[in-house]
Amino acid sequence: MTKNSSESLRSSLQRTALYAGGFLGPFGGGVVASILPEIGDDLGVSASAAAGSLTAYLLPFALLMLVSGTLGARWGQTRTVRIAYGVYLLSSLACFVAPTLPLFLGARVLQGCSNSFTTPLLLAALAASTPQKHLGRALGVFGAFQAAGTSSAPLVGGLAAEVDWRLAFLVIALVAAVLGLVGVPDSASAEPGAPRPRLRDALTPSVLRIGVVALLGWGALGGLSFLVAFRAEDAFGLSPTQRGLLLTGFGVAGILTARLVGGVIDKIGARAAVLIGAVGGAILVAVAGTVSLLAVVAVAWFAAGIAGQFVLVGVNAAVLGSPGPNRGGSVSVVQALRFMGNALAPITLTPVYSVSPAAGFLLPALLLAVLAPLLMPRDRAPA
């Protein structure tokens, strides 16, 4: 193999790994969603207590991601991403062997912290290497990989639980190891003499408004997978694998439509796409939480995955397509708020669901439909 062909292969692998890196966040965060009863039984706690493993991962993930994009840009994107994957590998193995809930939750916290440094840096690198007119489509491909993580996580978790739920964390460790070995494209490195990224450049009113929309959008859509799993068991008596298959529909819809959604965003703009996803998603969540026919619930949850891509790819396109000196930090803030919505959903909506299962779905649907159109800023032309 010649030097040029070797470099070409390496570049192709790293480009693929850049997209595949979008897989790991939602996969690691959501792998427990369909197996909370099994985790609780093994660790001697209730399923509601085991649901804390969702928040233990996603809350520190979201909080640290407020600054991780800026810090990673300062330290060097390539080095930061490799170290983050290494820590993620070790913490996943710690989840595999944890004998008690506190130790398991501690390992989940470490997982979330390490993974907070990958997603925003990968998105910033993708935006930097993509022409503006094709940015929506590129972000759609990235969104498809994120959807693959969302869809495969509950299925892998459910299949693992048929033998031992801990096996799911070996899969996570393997994914982290492969991505860490491949690395990211050299083009992700900062140019010599580039200004030092500043956090204040990312904390603008426009970015924060987009971030709150991301919080509402993902907390009320993808963040409800645990409630769908609860309802699947309570109302329909589904097994772990069956629950996993049901939840998988959301991510499969994203995989199939994310690139198409990205192309639509290139034509109609980010704000219009987000509003379509928010209003449509709110209706579908209400259907999934109230209709008593399993087939209708499955179709509604699948369609909600399409709505979720309109919101997710739309907010990413809005922040990355706008002018600014610290786009990596800006998308880091938006992603932080997105996953904060995912983290807060279990601890805020589980008590509501316990009192009224229907209200657990209708409340987030109402918030999404009303607040997203009010908060989402108008599209801005790039500099």
TrEMBL record:
Compartments annotated for it: namely: Cell membrane
List, in alphabetical order, the Gene Ontology terms for molecular function in this entry: transmembrane transporter activity
Q: Which InterPro entries match?
A: MFS, MFS_dom, MFS_trans_sf, Tet-R_TetA/multi-R_MdtG-like
Q: Gene3D superfamilies under this entry? A: MFS general substrate transporter like domains
Keywords on record:
Membrane, Transmembrane, Transmembrane helix, Transport
Q: Which residues cross the membrane?
A: 16-36, 48-71, 83-103, 139-161, 167-185, 206-232, 244-265, 272-295, 301-321, 359-376
Q: Which Pfam families match?
A: MFS_1 (PF07690)
Major facilitator superfamily (MFS) profile domain: residues covered: 14-380
The membrane-topology field of this record reads: Multi-pass membrane protein
Task: List the protein's name.
Answer: Multidrug resistance transporter, MFS superfamily protein
According to its record, what are the GO cellular component terms? plasma membrane
